[in-house]
Amino acid sequence: MKKYNLSNIMKRAWELVKKAGMTISAGLKKAWKEAKNMTKALEDFLMKNGGKRWTKKNEDGSVAQDRIYINDVERIADVFGFDNPKAYRRTQIYYNYVTDVLVLNMSGTRFNHMKEEFEKRFEDINIR
After folding, report:
1. pLDDT digits over 40-81, tens only?
2. Of 64, 65, 82, which Cα lies nearest the Cα of 73?
3. Which of 24, 76, 111, 121 lies 20 to 30 Å (CA to CA) from residue 102?
4. DSSP assigned state of 59
5. pTM value > 0.85
6. Can you give the residue ranges of every domain in the chain?
């Protein structure tokens, strides 16, 4: 069963109510639709740029972990137009379907500002 971040969906619904003048019902419907489409958009983007799918199942056959991961983010850095894409060869990104979380694994002081930039760029293409 796919889990969604209900807090983000509710925040988005209230944002639509306040800024777009929607009713809470219409805002929730739109927020749910966006959440479901966002997962598909993120999956398409990561797979198109070298992503690999990994699934781990429990003994009873239920899904314990389900991820799309990229161990070499150089290609995505190039797509985003970063100055030195080769600096991201050891950077990892994965999207966890079970928890609906995009994880960027970067370390070191020089990557602190770039992690924020990656998160901003993913939001710019309607991917969280």
Report:
1. 777 888 888 889 999 998 889 888 888 898 887 888 888 888
2. 82
3. 24
4. T
5. no
6. 6-124
